[in-house]
Amino acid sequence: MDLRLPRDATRLGRIWPDQSVDGRGLRDFFELLPFAVNLFDPDGTSVFVNQAWTRMFDQVSAGCGYLLDPKKVVGSYNILSDRTVSPSRLAGWMEAFSGRTVTFPSVGQPVALIRQNHRLDGLDVVSLSQDVTAFPVFDQSEGLAYVAAIMITRQAVRGRAEIARAIAYLEANWREPFNAAAAADAAGFSTRHFAREFRKYVGLSPHEYQLRYRMARLRETLCDPALSVSQAFAACGMDYSGWLARLFRERTGLTPSEFRRQAFASPAISARPVKPALAKSAKAVRTNQTGQARATDPPGASAVSISDAAR
């Protein structure tokens, strides 16, 4: 099969704007990348993962040999039937399978489930956050050949389950005003001890962590063409006329309306007809998530190290 990457949807497409590559050549290219890649066929089934994918946890656990098993995923895992994927995120995946490039910021991976399925006994990573970009690969007849997902690790928390529980609480309740006492209860700490421990291991205060997470979700929601700017804020539990709107401009350099216009002008948001077409009603999302403190891009993405001695 003669394949090509999308011309205008991603930087990868601009590397080879006119060059055709066969399926093996495409896989060889993905092996050169330092980022984890999972390649899906048009029905959502994984057909290929690169070596960086197998080393995803090894990179954030100081090279302790924790390798993922491709046989647990290739040929059996289907992203469109994964029950751990939220409905809103599934809608974004449907957009990717309809021919659009979609970015999911700060995706929390199901570490406990991965540890169990891949038998990674002793793995001390308790939380892993990644930016995931999914984009289509077309054949010569403009049909969808594959959807490629590139995963960039932004933050990993190692060794302390209490902090992971607090992170899970903050992310699950991101629409609500920050509640230090509730977050501390989730971790099982006093409020003062929790703030100190969280900053030590994550590099941010709990309030700042949730605030950054809320900003990332807001940027994602602003890219929904079905919502107005004020409706996007309301969907995120925010007041468009309040201080969060001013904070958005301070942190992005753009007003929410300017950010929205810029996002819609991007080719990553523009639709492209694809054969076969899937679910046209799904939301298109795109954002540019900034890395959090102590989080670096792979290879060798730095993890937040938590030692037993610090407990």
Q: Could you tell me the number of beta strands?
A: 7
**Structural class given helices, strands, pairing?**
alpha+beta
The rough form would be described as flat
> In angstroms, what separates the terminal alpha carbons?
55 Å
Low-confidence stretches: 1-22, 268-311
What is the oligomer described by this structure? single chain
Number of domains as seen in the coordinates: 1
Q: What is the element string, with H for helices and E for strands?
A: EHEHEEHHHEHEEHHHHHHH
* Biggest beta-sheet profile: 7 strands, antiparallel
Structure, described:
- The protein has about 300 residues and is of the alpha+beta class.
- The chain has one domain (about 1-310): 2-Layer Sandwich (Beta-Lactamase), CATH 3.30.450.
- Helix content is about 35%, strand content about 15%.
- It contains 13 helices and 7 strands.
- It has helices at about 10-15, 25-30, 50-55, 55-60, 85-95, 110-115, 160-170, 180-185, 190-200, 205-220, 230-235, 245-250, 255-265; strands spanning about 1-5, 20, 35-40, 45-50, 100-110, 125-140, 145-160.
- Strands 1, 2, 3, 4, 5, 6 and 7 form a 7-stranded antiparallel β-sheet that branches.
- A hairpin with a 5-residue loop joins strand 3 (about 35-40) and strand 4 (about 45-50).
- Helix 7 (about 160-170) packs antiparallel against helix 8 and helix 8 (about 180-185) packs across helix 9.
- It is flat.
- It starts with a strand and ends in a 46-residue tail after the last helix.
- About 40% of the residues are buried.
Note the topology.
Layout: E1 2-4, H1 11-15, E2 21-22, H2 23-32, E3 36-40, E4 46-49, H3 51-54, H4 56-59, H5 87-96, E5 102-108, H6 111-117, E6 125-139, E7 144-158, H7 161-172, H8 180-187, H9 191-202, H10 206-222, H11 229-235, H12 243-252, H13 256-265
Antiparallel strand pairs: 1-2, 1-6, 3-4, 3-7, 5-6, 6-7
Helix pairs in contact: 7-8, 8-9
